[in-house]
Structure formats: C-alpha cells, structure tokens
Fold this sequence. Notes:
single chain, alpha+beta, Nucleotidyltransferase, domain 5, Hexokinase, domain 1, 2 domains, seven-stranded mixed beta sheet, six-stranded mixed beta sheet
Amino acid sequence: MVALRPQASFASSPAVPASRFVAADVGGTNARIALVESDGERIEILDYRRYPCGQYPSLTAILSDFTGRQLDAGQPRTAFERMAIASAGVVLDGEVINSNLPWRISLQDLRDTLDLRELHVINDFAAAAHGTQRLDPADSRLLTPGVTLAEAGPALVVGPGTGLGAAVCIPHRHGTVVLPTEAGMTAFAPGTDREVEILRWMQRHGSRHVSTEQLVSGPGLVNLYQALCELECTRPLLRAPAAISEAARVGDPTSLEAVRTFCALLGSVIGDLAVVSGARVVHVAGGIVPQLVDFIPHSDFHARLVDKGAMRAVLERVPVRLIENERLGALGAASWYLQQEQDRIEQDPIKQDMATHGQASAY
C-alpha cells in the first residue's frame, strides 16, 4: 500500500449537501482509494492511498484496511457508509467480473463486511470521463503539438493499462452524458505488413479473434515484443512492460521496434475511436502511456491517428492530451456519485428542500 499526500480540491457543479464518502478506482494492477468531501461546490480529496491488488486477497480487504486507518485517525464512521467504486468488467449475480483483476468483487461481501448504507459500481472509463471534466490544464500534457484548441463536441477518453478502456463524453443540454464502451474487445486491425505478421503470430498462439487490447495495453506491449522476437528468430528475455521500455531507451532494437509499433497502434486506435464517436478532443488516461510518452514524438503515433482517408482533415484538428493526474478514476467516481445525488434531489421536492437548508438525507 502506498499513501499519497492529499490533493487540492476540484471544482464541482452539483449543489448537494456537504458530506464525506469513499471513492475508489480499481484497476488490474492497483486499487486507488480516496476519502472525499463535497460541500456542493467543490470535491476535496482528504486522503488517498494506492494498494497493489495482487498483495491483498480481495477488494474487501483493501477497503477494510483503508477504513480502519481512517477511523484510527479520527474520521467519523459515517464517512465510510457510502462508497462509489469505478472498475472495469461486468456485474453478474452480485459480483464484478473482470479478467484483469486477481479476484472477483463480491458486492454482498462489501456491504456486509463494511456495513455499507450505499454501494455504487461504475465503469472505470465512464468514471475517467467524468473525472476529465474536473481537471485543471496543468493535469495534462499535449501529445499533438500545434493542435491545442478543441472544438465543441464529444470528448473521447481512452487508456491502455492492464486492458484498453474507452468512454465518450457527449454534451447534452446543461450537462454531459457519458457513454462507456468495450473498445478493447474490438478486433485488432493491422495497418502494415509487419503488423499483419504480428496478427498471425497472435492467432497461432491463441484464437482467431485477436482483440485490440491484446496489443494496445501493458500486456499488449509484452505480446508485441515476444512476437517480434520470434519473427526475428531471437529469444525473448523481457517479461514486463517497464523492462521493455527501459531496454528500448538504451537501444535494444527489438524493444525499440515493439515500443514504436505500440505507439503507432495507439494512434491508429485513437483515430478509429475518434471517427466513430465524433470526438473533438481526446484524453489519454494514464496506464502504460506515461512510460512511453518520450517515444511518441519519434513514432508514427500522429501519422496513424490522422490516416483515416476522408476524415484526415477533421482528425488533424483534434487535440490529444495525456492526463498526468493518477487520481482521475477516484475523482471521476466521486463526481459521478455526486451527479446521481443531484439528480435524486432535483426529482424529490423534500430532498431538494433539505439540500437547500444544508441537511443531509439518507437513501
């Protein structure tokens, strides 16, 4: 478990009563847990901790540890009765099932063990999409030099981490509708002869369907490296994305080709998703990309992104930004929860009156 210093508060629009609750971002590698407070105008992260998922037997154990530490520090018990959890996967028979997690998430176990009054689960990239709307410009860096201003329209959030996630923010009246996707499960589309060879290698070592996230993700970088080693008749020595990116930095030719191929594929995928969604800005959410960001300007990332035939002129005007705030998922889960609270208050005159007079309401 890694404890990180609290972060400054973030601007918020919902006018809900002041309250504290837990927001969590559960990824295949780490679970990021935050104790947050909102006064109806801002979201403030009071405490934030990162837990390696593989070192704990369940999400319940992680949240129990976080809650226990906060209670020992003097936080009120009521701050831990409501939780909003962002996670990839699907909810089936009371469990969140995600092949990238080391365990299933039992919602009943969480409710019973932690004595929860409210428990909400949101798609991880839907949460990220909500979170992008609350970030400062300093929380991201531009990946498309010269393309800075975004036109009005949908925003795409995409991130290759343990898998490949994506969501679309669609402007709607006075707010935003967030559409989660399963973009990582789409079929991988090679764009060069070399990538066709990689696709055939993947099919020989798996099934005919090769998903995009099998090559555009952290494990995907490892797959690329192993495929290229076999194609070059060399023995693969590296087993982790960080080792491959480090080897690429010191000039290992196979690692360097793997990293550059990854960057090109990421650009191609972003271009495809931007075309499908009509996105006018793209946010790349963490994952493995921060390890590779120095390679992007020297790769075919942007060339492949805009190489979409008649859509080139449109994509050349779409800025792409890398989010560098690792609290994005937890912040987004909190933002989503507060939006739900605001919707419920607006639909109930009694709750609306309680909110106006600063009284908390129970659900």
